[in-house]
From TrEMBL:
Name of the molecule in the record: Acetyltransferase
Residue ranges annotated for the N-acetyltransferase domain, each copy included: 3-163
Entry keyword set: Transferase
Organism: Pseudoxanthomonas suwonensis
Top-level taxon: Bacteria
GO MF term set: acyltransferase activity, transferring groups other than amino-acyl groups
Membrane-traversing stretches: none
Length: 198
């Protein structure tokens, strides 16, 4: 069956919270208030659906966001314009089935029209080799490391240049064409008309 990537729906937040908090030590836990903040403020908050079931989610923020993550702040202190993947979670039964790759293809398609760089982190203290290899296969490289003081977790800070951005920006500036597959940043639209990524 195919994987569908689409914007999260409000009634799915409890399921997203359960997915996050059952993901293990490679993902920081969330509470419902923090997840609600993501829902209301994240530029990109999409879920994967496979065989009619929720298979994962990805949350991301542009560099101008008012986001209080220490890893986001690390990137903000070094790069003027970027898109930050705050977290990606794939249900354990779906790992290795292409859901993560579908998310990264979708988020890159979204980000490369708006930002020159894609950023994320991989926690290094919990068997990071599969995640590092996954990100490396997508063209990410380590730009440094950060120890998250509030949780004492060391992270590999990863970046990827988005090679389409210079041409898109030189051609369209901030006025992207109104095409269904281009979509619009979540904050500039009513929730029911936000980008679908299709």
């Amino acid at each position: 069956m195919s994987i569908v990537i689409r914007d999260v729906r409000e009634h799915e937040l409890d399921s997203v919270l359960a997915l996050n908090n059952n993901a293990g030590s490679a993902i920081l836990p969330l509470d419902s208030a923090r997840l609600r903040d993501f829902y209301e403020n994240a530029e990109y908050f999409r879920v994967a659906e496979r065989d009619g079931n929720l298979a994962g989610f990805l949350v991301g923020f542009g560099s101008d966001a008012d986001h209080d993550s220490s890893n986001f702040a690390w990137f903000k202190a070094r790069y003027p314009n970027f898109f930050y993947i705050d977290r990606i979670v794939v249900a354990s039964r779906r790992r290795g089935g292409g859901v993560g790759r579908a998310f990264y293809a979708d988020v890159q398609s979204y980000a490369e029209l708006r930002y020159p760089q894609l950023c994320c982190e991989v926690f290094l203290d919990h068997g990071a080799d599969p995640a590092l290899l996954f990100h490396g296969s997508f063209g990410f490289h380590e730009a440094g490391q950060n120890v998250m003081a509030n949780v004492d977790v060391r992270a590999s800070m990863m970046t990827k240049e988005l090679c389409s951005y210079p041409w898109v920006h030189a051609t369209y500036g901030d006025d992207l064409p109104d095409l269904p597959w281009v979509g619009r940043p979540r904050q500039s639209q009513p929730r029911d008309s936000r980008a679908t990524g299709t």
